[in-house]
Write a structure and sequence with these properties.
binds 3-Dehydrosphinganine, binds NADPH dihydro-nicotinamide-adenine-dinucleotide phosphate, Rossmann fold, 3-dehydrosphinganine reductase, seven-stranded parallel beta sheet, 11 helices, about 325 residues, NADP, alpha/beta
């Protein structure tokens, strides 16, 4: 977007559908959108928290703005579809305009230590939790000949990954595959697709995952300083305003973006050439440090497995 041309990202008066809008990034976004004059639907599971957030958002809104919370588990495709339809009730059945797919969760663990359920929950809670809603949204919008935009939320760990994220990165990488293909298809219908690839975001989600994060995973992440959800939401909306397809929240993520990007549209052609050049040297160096952090953690992990009787025990 040029300095004097108006961005076509204009939440005012739009119906914004925010999954995971009751805390962290999604809640910060909901607040920002309400303040900009949007109608907002927030979706998450916990009813009590949802009602509380709905009241907080209503307090920020003008009387004509619609603010509603709907409780649903979005890892289920039927509830994902029904929830979207339900959100259209105050709008005469018209599909929402802007979608922000923030719902997600993360419980880092070594694969050796994960149950099958934890492994599957990881993928469901990162991929299907957004994919079902995206599918329902494009079908509804196209059927109604509506235009709009869908923003997925992946992660820095959707570009590159390391020990501890076998149940998280696969779904976050998969979201990138989905968004890349959908972006191309939606050129047919003038529906804009974006994907946000943030680094650490402070809040209850991160606190919960840090509570039992493997030491090696912690160590590799030392170089990243989590930012408040409001900053993260602002980075996302800045990218939307500029019309970026892949949106990052810092320069390190831009290095990862250029090193792992499936040939998607550039943000800024010349800046992207620079990021690619620097990352061609920087990323391999970073990978050496990450791998050595894993090797340095080896002794403690193997000793722990010895104590827990993992070795030569078919039941573990
Ligand atoms: N925090 C971080 O460091 C980073 C986070 N991300 C990603 O950004 C997004 C936001 O993260 P963060 O701010 O930490 O979010 P939180 O973990 O704090 O909040 C997650 C939100 O999603 C909702 N949610 C989770 N699972 C479901 C489900 N199955 N159905 C419906 N709603 C669900 C939660 O509500 P409820 O539990 O009531 O359903 C809550 O509102 C996530 O997708 C995360 O993976 C990316 C990079 C870094
Ligand atoms: C030149 C290259 C240098 C690279 C330095 C990189 C340092 C590692 C950053 C790891 C950041 C992880 C953030 C995402 C967290 C996330 O998604 C989880 N919290 C899940 O919720």
């Amino acid at each position: 977007m040029g300095l004097f041309s108006k961005s076509d990202y204009q939440p005012k008066g739009k119906h914004c559908y925010i999954t995971g809008g009751t805390q962290g990034l999604g809640k910060a976004l909901a607040e920002s959108l309400v303040k900009q004059g949007a109608h907002v639907t927030v979706v998450a599971r916990d009813v009590e928290k949802g009602k509380r957030v709905e009241a907080e958002l209503k307090a920020l809104a003008q009387p004509h703005q619609i603010v509603q919370f709907i409780s649903a588990d979005l890892t289920n495709h039927k509830s994902s579809e029904q929830t979207l339809i339900k959100s259209t009730e105050p709008f005469n059945g018209q599909a929402p305009d802007y979608y922000y797919l923030c719902a997600g969760f993360s419980r880092p663990k070594y694969m050796v230590d994960s149950s099958l359920a934890e492994f599957e929950d990881g993928f469901n809670g990162t991929f299907w939790v957004s994919a079902y809603t995206a599918r329902a949204a494009v079908k509804l919008m196209v059927r109604q000949r509506r235009v709009g935009r869908i923003t997925f939320v992946s992660s820095f760990l959707g570009y590159t990954t390391f020990a501890g994220y076998t149940n998280y990165s696969p779904g976050k990488y998969a979201l990138r595959g989905l968004a890349d293909s959908l972006r191309s298809e939606m050129l047919l219908h003038d529906i804009k697709i974006h994907i946000f690839m943030p680094c650490g975001i402070q809040g209850p989600g991160l606190e919960a995952e840090n509570a039992d994060k493997p030491a090696v995973t912690h160590k590799i992440e030392e170089g990243d300083t989590p930012i408040p959800p409001e900053y993260s939401a602002r980075a996302m909306e800045n990218g939307l305003r500029k019309g970026y397809y892949q949106i990052t929240d810092n320069i390190v993520a831009d290095f990862a973006r250029l090193r792992s990007n499936g040939g998607v549209p550039s943000n800024n052609f010349f800046a992207d050439c620079f990021y690619l050049l620097v990352s061609s040297i920087g990323i391999p160096i970073w990978r050496m440090t990450a791998d050595s952090a894993v090797r340095n953690g080896r002794r403690a992990v193997l000793a722990d497995y010895e104590v827990r009787g993992i070795y030569d025990n078919p039941a573990k």
